[in-house]
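Issue 218. Parser rejects a valid record. Input:
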Amino acid sequence: MKEAKFFNRQIFDYEGLCGRLHSSSYAPLPGHPNYEPMMKELQTIYERNEQDGCVFFDYETKVYWGEV
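Output the parser choked on:
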């Protein structure tokens, strides 16, 4: 079996992070009771993790292939 790894990084400022969250189909929409608590928690997470105004989503994709 062979394996390959691919790495990718998304970089977000706070506005971009909000946009990324809002693009998720499972995220509560404005008006939903969980929306405001979610946004407050997002702000907290951002403030705790930001570096020079950005947060990073690091991805690692592994692909395996071979013959049977």
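Fixed in the parser; the record now loads. The first strand starts at residue 2 and ends at 12.
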